[in-house]
Amino acid sequence: MLLTDKHIENALNGLEIATDATAAIRGALESPNFGGFFDPESVASAASLLPLAAAFSQHPISGFAVGAIATGASGKLYLGANMEFQGMPLNASLHAEQSALLNAWMHEEHAVVALSVSETPCGHCRQFLRELSNFTRLKLDVDGRSYAPGDLLPHAFGQVPAAGHGLLDSRPTVLEAVRPEPDTSQQRAINAAQRSYVPYSRSPEGFVLECLNGRTFTGRAAECIAFNPSVPGVLVALNQRNLSASRQITITSAIQAKLATAINNPLTFARALIHSVSNVEVQTVQMDGAVNVNASLARYS
What predicted TM-score, i.e. pTM, was given to this entire model? Predict the structure, then answer.
């Protein structure tokens, strides 16, 4: 159970919120199905959860924990925490702001209205935030102060996506396995790939992790116009596992689905990243299908 983690237990005990709210959060964390978010009635404010979010951080290289909370249009509060991987390049890291947004995305949240962060976002994350179609209306809270994201990123690269074409609200692509009748895990990876946000490479990719307890975690590619802040499916899947009740459960299988005609190939990175946390081999399934290009074209209309 999650509460075997002393960092999470200490953060929970130190939350400055009402006793009944703490009890509700503890109850959610103790559920084997906990998936990294809380219903709005559980807490008084998103900022109050930042110490708990930071306790999910995996930071073996920097020793620096960052927490983030994304507030969805639904009112749900999504945890985010930075992740680093020992033995991997520094650019394999996931930042807390990305973690929270991707967590909301993987739970089918179509808009994030506010983002609370325990540290001022770096330029990498500010650029990633511009992939939200409501970027100009997003509320950013840091250490009790509110900012408009545009004020933190003047003279930004690229344009904000049109409504319906951003990271959280773009429409899926129809894809099929090159070989017939994929098994269940392969189909999950294909399903994830169909919801990829890939307006620049148009190379969708999905990833599925299965743990020893039977829980599965999916991820899909999330691109950024500046390329480097882009996040591959394997890292999105690992983020979902880290923010869940199965974060310490052994990974037993890993499957990647990628477009057969993709112009970029995340497989080498995925294999290296999985090998840094598990002994499993990454299986692959190739997909075929017409990728919708309107997502990228709409950005400049």
Answer: 0.92
